[in-house]
Amino acid sequence: METHPNGPGVRPGEGDNMSITAGLNTRTWTDADVRALVPAPLFTRLTGRVAREELVSTEQAERIMTQALAFLQACALNPGTALSPSPQVDIGWHAFVLYTRDYAEFCQRVAGRFVHHVPDDDPAEPRRSGPDAIAATVAALRLVGLPVDEDLWQVTGVKCSQCHEGCVDST
Asked: How far apart are CA 65 and CA 87, in angstroms?
């Protein structure tokens, strides 16, 4: 059985009882806890990619990836709730999605399902990204005890560079 951040032998979804609707915070996550959601060599590869492609320092890339993993953990803990990353956090999600095998394994292990990356640019659908959606996502992160790097969750009018409109999880 996999090791879940809530303790050895606890599978994702078991013993969590953490959702936006339930609002039960059974633990406080540290950056180290969040980074441990993926193997250290993968975290290093992901941060290296972000640093190279975004022309940011390794430290900044690590912050981005840590928040992307925290965002994905929040998605896992809140099935059925559409959460939206900030443009900076979305950079980390984009980097992770490129490693399809690792990303799919992570999703299955942590969420028990695939967390789809869905651009929010369909004019027929109501927008689920933007400042209000990001504020709701930050609230969800805090509610389940995940760390929030305030600087990376700021919305400054910058749009997601690859999706052009914004991105949300698939729930």
From this structure: 12
pLDDT along the chain (171 residues), means of 10: 34 38 66 97 98 98 98 94 93 98 98 90 68 93 96 70 44 50
Assess contact for 159 and 167: CB atoms under 8 A.
no
Which structure tokens are listed for 145? 């005890």
- As a whole number of Å, the end-to-end CA separation of the chain is 26
For residue 8, the surrounding DSSP H or E stretch is strand 7-8
Q: Are 165 and 119 in contact (CB under 8 A)?
A: yes
Q: Is 68 in contact with 76 (CB distance < 8 Å)?
A: no
- How far is CA 106 from each of CA 10, 39, 84, 161, rounded to the nearest angstrom? 15, 10, 19, 24
Q: How far apart are CA 139 and CA 142, in angstroms?
A: 5
Report how far residue 103's alpha carbon sits from residue 17's, in angstroms, rounded to the nearest whole number.
Answer: 24
How do 167-169 and 117-119 pair as beta strands?
antiparallel
* C-beta of residue 31 within 8 angstroms of C-beta of residue 43: no
**pLDDT of res. 142:** 95
> DSSP string covering 125-171, please?
S----SHHHHHHHHHHHHHTT----GGGG---SPPPTTTSS-EEE--
